[in-house]
Structure formats: C-alpha cells, structure tokens
Specification:
The structure holds 2 protein chains of 2 kinds. Chain A is an alpha/beta fold. Chain A is built from 14 helices and 5 strands. Chain A has 2 domains: 230 residues, no CATH class; 117 residues, abc type-2 transporter like domain (abc type-2 transporter like fold, 3-Layer(aba) Sandwich). Chain A has a 5-stranded mixed beta sheet with strand order 2-1-3-4-5, sandwiched between helices. In chain A, strand 4, helix 6 and strand 5 form a beta-alpha-beta unit. The radius of gyration of chain A is 26 Å and the shape is elongated. In chain B, 31% of the residues lie in helices and 30% in strands. Chain B has 11 helices and 18 strands. In chain B, the strands form 5 sheets. In chain B, strands 10-11-12-7-13-14 form a 6-stranded mixed beta sheet, sandwiched between helices. A 4-stranded antiparallel beta sheet of chain B has the order 6-5-8-9. A 4-stranded antiparallel beta sheet of chain B has the order 16-17-15-18, covered by helices on one side. In chain B, helix 8 crosses helix 11. Classes of the chains: A alpha/beta, B alpha+beta. Chains A and B meet through helix 1 and helix 8 of A and strand 10 and helix 3 of B.
C-alpha cells in the first residue's frame, strides 16, 4: 500500500467534501440543528412504564398503594424483595426505577386516621440515564401521594417522596440525545458516502477509470475509510462542542467511545457498499439508503428512550446495529457504565465486521 | 523508427524517420510551417505492435457480444474502431483494458499478455472511458494531479494543460466546465502518466460540432506527440478526419479493416458526377452513345459514376459539343459513411 496514494485520495475527498454545500449541511449543520431543536422541545410520551416496588411494610395499605399504581394503566408495578444495597441491585438487574415503601407506612396511615400525623418518606430510586421516563414516573407517583395526603390529612404532608439517583451525576435529555445524534450522523455520512462511491462513481466511469490505473482496491478502500473516519470524528467533535457550549453536556473521551466511532464508520460504510451493490441507480440507491437509515434512526433509540416504545418495537430495536452504537456511546461517553459500554462495543464490532467484510467481498469492482 | 504525422496547420500527412527517444525539428512539405516531433523512447517495444487482439470472444449466456475477433494496431497510429450502437465496440475495448474478462482469446499490449502483465501495462496506457465524468468538485489541475499521483511515472501537468489548451481552465471546477472542455480534461487525464497508448472510448459523443472539432484537434496532436491512439467511435466523419487505420465491427464481428482509402476503394461506390437541371433525354442519349453509364435521378438531374477525373472533362466536352445546357455540376466522393452503410 502506497502512502502517497492514500494521502492523495484523502486530500481529494476533503476538497470535494468542503466544496459541497449539501454535504457540509448534512454532515455538520443538520445534526447541530437537530440538537438545538430537540434539546429545546423535549417532551415525553404516553406509554406504560415499569416500576419495581420494594415493599418493606408489606401491609394492607402498602398493597393498596401498589394496586392503585397498577390501576393507573401507566405504571406497571413489579414487587421485589431487597434487603441489601438497592443501587447495586438495580445496576445488576438493569432496573431503571424502583420505589421503596418503608416499614411503618401502614401504621403512619392508621395513625393519621386517628388524628396523629407522623410523616413518612417513600424513596424513589431511578437511573438518570433514562431521565425522560424516570421523571414521568416520578411525577405520577408524586401526584398519587398528594391525593393520599389530601385524603388522610386534608393536605398536610403525611407521605412524602425522596429521590435517589443510582448515578451520582444528574443527566438530562440532552445527555441522552447527544450520543444518539453522533451515532446517527456517522451512520448517515457513511451510508451515503458509500452509496455515492458505488453508484455515482460507477455511473460516471470513475471506477472503470481507476481499474485501469495502478491504484489497488485496498488502497482505494483504505483511503476512503480514512476519510470516513475523519468525517466521523469531525462530526463527533462538533456535536460534542455544541452540546457542551449550549447545553452544558459533560462528555468523557474514553477508549471505548473511540473504538465505537471507528467501528461504526466501518459498519455503515459496509452497509452503504451493500446497498450500492444491489441497487445500481444513484437516485434509487439514495432512496434505499433512506429507507434503511431513517426507520433505524427512530427505532434504535436515537431521539427517545427505548422503554417508551411498545414491547415489540423494543425487541426489534435490539437487532438494529444503531441501537448498540447509541447505547454504547451513551454508556462510554456520558453515563460511564463501563460494563454496559463494553457489551455494546462488542456488538458494534461484530456488526462492523459482518457488514464491512460483506460489503467489500460482494462489491463488484469489475464489469461482467 | 518512422512516424506518420499530420501537419496541425494545413492537415498534410507525411512520414518522418527518427531515432526512438529523440526530438527533431521538421518543416511541413506542404505549407512550410515548422514544428517539433518526439520519437517515443523504448528499445524493448520498438517494432512490437501496440495492440494485438487474437480470437477475442465475449459471451453473455446465449448472446455473443464479441465473436472471436482479431486485429493488430501498430505503434504511432490512430486506430479507429467503428461500429453501430450495440455492435460490441465498448465490450471489446473494455476487454482490452482488462475491465471485462473475455470468454476466450488473447490480448497483448506492447507485446505483453494482459492476463499476466496488466499491472505493468497499466503504467504504459491511458484510458478515457465511455461517458466518463471526473470528480465534480476538484479543479482541472487538482484532477490531473490526483490521477498523476497514482502512477510511478508522471508527465509534467503544466505541459499537459498547455498541450490540451486547458491553461485558462486549470483553476475551474470540473463540474462547471462545458461538455467539450470536460472531454478535453478526460483526454488530459489519460495522458498524466505519459502513456504510449491512449484509449479513447467515444470521446465526442454528445458534443456540439464545435466542441467535437476541438477534441479532434487534441487527438490529432496526440499522434503528433508519437502516441498510439485507439479511438472507439460511431462518427464516420471523426474516423475519416483522424484515423490511419480503421476496423468496422458489426454484430460482434470485424467486417472490414484497412486504411480509409483501402476501405473506400474496396467497399465504396466510387465517385459520381451529378449534372443538375439539364435536358435529360438528350444528355442521356449523348453520353450513353459515348460509352458512359448514366442514371436519371428525375427533376432533370443525371448521375454518372466516374473512376478517373479525366472522365469529367470528357463528359463536359461532350455536353458542350452537343449544345446541352445545364445549371450546375458537382462531384460526390465516395466516403466512409457510404462504406459503413453498405457493410452494416
């Protein structure tokens, strides 16, 4: 492999990229606009949320509270019995929200009926990385407890709610959204970049011309991947800077984050090659790229947490490569959940190997 | 070695002898203009045909696109490969360029088999593919530099820009150029490695007559620089203007091959003298009596096939002698288009 050829092709790709207003918009301006818009209009959705209950009181009143939760149709309570460290338990069992009803809850309500007010506190444990759904669930429980206070003490505080985050840092929707936007932007640039090389360059005779020059297939692929990596890191840096400057997002640059970005570039470049292999016309290939990338963008938890979607879609999302990219980037660069990030990275690497190898092997470099 | 060159000023064709690798100053024997000629330097391939195609065949299922064709292109000549659309021209040239794999047959370029030596051959050929469009957002100069870096040996970009008359366009983006200029850049790209053989696949398709003429001049200059040109075209006028050697392919077979004069003399209908608006019956009688083959074309026009220009004077003398009036005369020369239409 000749370095001068790689540098030459890389330089030509950069020049071409920076002179294309459309490409600059889609790779830089579009993701930034989306971050600003979505960051400003964040809102939840009406769906069913799981809530785990650690009922230490185990009384008629605590059972009644769980039953009321169930009747809301929005909360889906699951009873657990935890005596040790709740935060560790939640992490191990991958539980996002848990309400602990303390011992004495029933007694406090009974006492209130007889005129004696002795406040009692329920603790709400939540995973801030699922901030959107956690805050919705919290507001529902608060509302229920306010009604309870009104019923037992005419509004004086009898039962109150205390928050406990499973992670020490506080996260918002934008912390969830920024890594998703990075994954989405890399996916778009790599898929469409590959499609352009495999359809437009073929139609324009550039591939035929290159076949008759001394450039090798590996030099061509390697230089193009070098450019795609450059674009991926440029997008990541810009999105990160905007997220930090405008929304105060704290991004940690970790080795896993870098591995995921590299693997994602290979993954979606391979996917673009496959699309270009089977759909010859440039316009049709663009449409095919959109037909694959846009549903994936919505279903893989780029904009909204997966747990807000119906169960069937959640299951489907787990076969989509972008889901592991998004989750991996969140865990590796924001939430710092190393074990989860490692699993996501492994999944992204497998997808990258499969798609990139298939793309290179199946792409037709010569004519029939 | 000998180079057969066309004067860029008056179009006169002349052969010049010289030593490979040297450059000489010559004067045109017709118009007297002076110019320089370079004789390609390569002892190894001196005297070896530029391209040898033997029994080349391409089969797609039951369809035979190219049916076992053979031909040879000599160094320093412009070889025009003619044929109607779908005749197998591009399939053939892409097999020679190693873009398509032949079903059978052998191709040698400068004496080397493309199956075993194409990596080496790549450095000695330059190719303009059919309907080629380069990177739209690179300038002309950047485009030439991009392709030149791919080769171990490259020509001087400034010289190419000058030779292709692209100096004024060098800073313009390729995507903003006219069709004619894009084709000129395409030819220029094929020269960045200073190749011995240049393949041009339909280089003027889709161009207006002026742009086409400009590209022709560029191609003619390639021959003047000692390059071998393999030109694929379906424009007869283009082949007539440029080619030293012509092969016509039809339905996958070479149906005729030779120089322009060879083809016209073998397959043309000869020259025809046309006399317009004359007293038809009197003229036909007079000329037939004197041994001429006369054809009435209606509306008072007659046509007389002639093989020698002396016969024209005889015919005109006869008409004057018999006091037969006419409006005008013209002589239509047999051309490649006529040969092509006859054969295909």
């Amino acid at each position: 492999m000749r370095i001068k050829v790689l540098i030459n092709d890389f330089k030509a790709s950069i020049l071409t990229w920076k002179r294309s207003k459309g490409t600059l918009f889609w790779t830089i301006a579009f993701p930034i606009i989306l971050i600003l818009i979505f960051g400003a209009i964040f809102s939840g959705q009406s769906v069913e949320y799981d809530i785990h209950i650690n009922d230490l009181d185990n009384s008629q009143h605590s059972h009644q509270l769980i039953s009321i939760m169930n009747e809301t149709g929005v909360l889906k309570p699951h009873t657990v019995d935890i005596t040790s460290n709740i935060t560790a338990y939640m992490k191990n069992e991958d539980i996002a929200r848990l309400l602990e009803i303390p011992k004495g809850y029933g007694q406090a309500l009974e006492a209130a009926l007889s005129g004696s007010t002795s406040p009692i506190t329920l603790t709400y444990y939540f995973d801030p990385s699922e901030q959107s759904s956690s805050s919705i669930v919290r507001s529902i429980i608060s509302d229920m407890l306010q009604r309870l206070n009104l019923q037992y003490t005419q509004g004086r505080t009898l039962v109150e709610l205390k928050d406990e985050s499973t992670i020490t840092e506080e996260f918002g929707f934008i912390d969830f959204f920024i890594p998703g936007m990075i994954g989405f932007t890399i996916m778009q640039s790599c898929i469409y970049g590959s499609i352009e090389r495999n359809t437009k360059f073929r139609k324009d005779g550039i591939l035929r011309k290159l076949l008759t020059t001394p450039i090798t297939r590996s030099e061509w692929i390697f230089s193009k991947m070098l450019f795609m990596l450059f674009l991926s890191f440029i997008s990541t840096i810009l999105i990160g800077i905007v997220g930090w400057l405008v929304w105060g997002v704290s991004i940690h640059v970790t080795p896993l984050m870098i591995i995921i970005i590299i693997a994602t570039s290979f993954l979606f470049s391979g996917m673009g090659m496959l699309i270009g292999r089977f759909v010859k016309e440039e316009e049709t290939a663009d449409t095919a790229g959109g037909a694959i990338s846009f549903p994936m963008m919505f279903l893989a938890g780029t904009f909204f947490p997966l747990d807000q979607m119906p169960e069937a879609l959640q299951t489907f999302a787990r076969v989509l490569p972008l889901y592991y990219v998004n989750e991996g980037l969140r865990n590796a660069m924001i939430y710092m959940k190393f074990n989860d990030a490692l699993i996501n990275t492994f999944a992204v690497l497998i997808f990258a190997a499969v798609f990139f190898i298939a793309g290179v092997v199946l792409t037709k470099w010569h004519e029939d | 070695m000998q180079l057969r060159l066309q004067c860029p000023h008056c179009g006169h064709i002349e052969s010049y002898d010289g030593t490979p690798g040297t450059r000489i100053v010559v004067s045109c024997l017709s118009c007297g203009q002076q110019g320089q000629i370079s004789f390609p330097f390569n002892h190894e391939t001196a005297g070896v045909p530029a391209i040898e195609v033997s029994n080349l065949k391409k089969q797609y299922g039951t369809l035979t696109a190219v049916n076992g064709i053979s031909f040879t292109v000599q160094q320093g000549e412009i070889f025009a490969f003619l044929g109607p659309n779908g005749a197998g021209k591009t399939t053939t040239v892409e097999m020679i360029e190693s873009i398509r794999k032949p079903t059978q047959g052998q191709v040698k370029i400068l004496g080397k088999d493309i199956n075993t030596s194409f990596d080496e051959i790549k450095h000695r050929i330059g190719i303009l593919p059919q309907e080629f469009k380069s990177f739209e957002r690179l300038t002309v100069r950047e485009t030439l530099e991009y392709f030149s870096v791919l080769y171990d040996k490259s020509a001087d970009i400034d010289e190419i820009l000058k030779a292709m008359d692209l100096v004024d366009q060098r800073k313009k983006l390729y995507g903003n150029l006219s069709g004619g200029l894009k084709q000129r850049v395409g030819v220029a790209i094929s020269l960045v490695n200073d190749p011995d053989i240049v393949f041009l696949d339909e280089p003027t398709t889709g161009l207006d007559p002026k742009a086409r003429r400009e590209v022709w001049q560029v191609i003619a200059n390639l021959r003047n620089r000692g390059k071998t040109v393999f030109l694929t075209t379906h424009y007869m006028e283009e082949a007539e203007y440029l080619a030293d050697h012509i092969a016509i392919i039809h339905k996958g077979n070479i149906i005729a091959e030779g120089s322009l004069d060879d083809l016209i003399s073998r397959y043309g209908k000869g020259n025809v003298l046309r006399i317009r608006n004359c007293s038809t019956q009197d003229a036909i009688e007079t000329l037939r009596i004197n041994g001429f083959d006369v054809i009435s074309e209606g509306n008072g026009d007659i046509a007389i096939p002639i093989n020698y220009k002396e016969r024209v004077l005889e015919i005109l003398s006869q008409l004057r002698h018999d006091c037969i009036e006419y409006d005008s005369i013209d002589i239509r020369r047999s051309n490649l288009e006529e040969v092509f239409l006859t054969l295909t």
